[in-house]
């Protein structure tokens, strides 16, 4: 047969009842007056009996525990000589209330944690959410607008470093070195014609078709010069993204290196 438990005045057990009495009587939990707390506890037990409520066995066990502690507290103390002797040999007489005190402190911690969780649950109950909606149909014919970011010299140097590393990996183990003078002015003209005919954004790396170090350096300096003249435009769609170069109408196309 299933046990029928009655929750008396919101007390969920004997420890809960003891905590209520300690708070109501403003008792220090670390120095419990056992006689006073036992009297109040038994008063609640008798009240429950008068109301003809079935008292759970745990309440009766706690009542017996309190009476046992009370009897130990009432026992006569050792004589002064014995006490002095115990102190001399370092003996310690355990406080009969210590175990009950530790149980109450531990129970209070869990009760406070339960109250905090209940408050969080109450706050969460006022928040309403909805399942995510499928917006794929609305986004089919919409092209995302890229965020144009200004490209700094440090971004360009970082891209050049990647390019040099990539070219180095693709470079054959054995090669014949030939010296070739490349005027920066000539490379600037080539870049202008290339970007004007391309009619769009060109990847930064695509401006370096040759892998020789001299060619890469000259091309990089030509890009800087054209950028200073506002002849070309450098863009990034996001931070640390790839750099794109495009021809800019109305820029200064006069070739000259300073």
Number of DSSP helices? 8
Beta-strand share of residues? 5-15%
For this structure, the quaternary state is single chain
Cα-based radius of gyration, to the nearest Å? 43 Å
Give the overall shape: rod-shaped
> What level of helicity do the residues show?
40-55%
Structural class, please? mainly alpha
- Helix and strand succession? HHHHHEHHEHEE
Low-pLDDT stretches: 1-8, 79-90
Domain module count: 2
Textual characterization of the structure:
With 258 residues, the chain is mainly alpha-helical. It is built from eight helices and four strands. Strands 1-3-4-2 form a four-stranded antiparallel beta sheet. α1 crosses α5. The longest helix has 27 residues. The protein starts with 13 loop residues before the first helix and ends in an 11-residue tail after the last strand.
Short description:
This protein has two domains: 14-124, no CATH class; 149-247, Structural maintenance of chromosome 1. Chain E (Arc Repressor Mutant, subunit A, Orthogonal Bundle). Helices cover 51% and strands 5% of the residues. It has eight helices and four strands; from the N terminus they run H-H-H-H-H-E-H-H-E-H-E-E.
Q: What are the SSEs and their pairings?
A:
Elements: H1 14-24, H2 34-50, H3 57-74, H4 80-88, H5 98-124, E1 149-150, H6 153-170, H7 184-198, E2 202-203, H8 213-228, E3 232-236, E4 243-247
Helix pairs in contact: 1-5, 2-3, 7-8
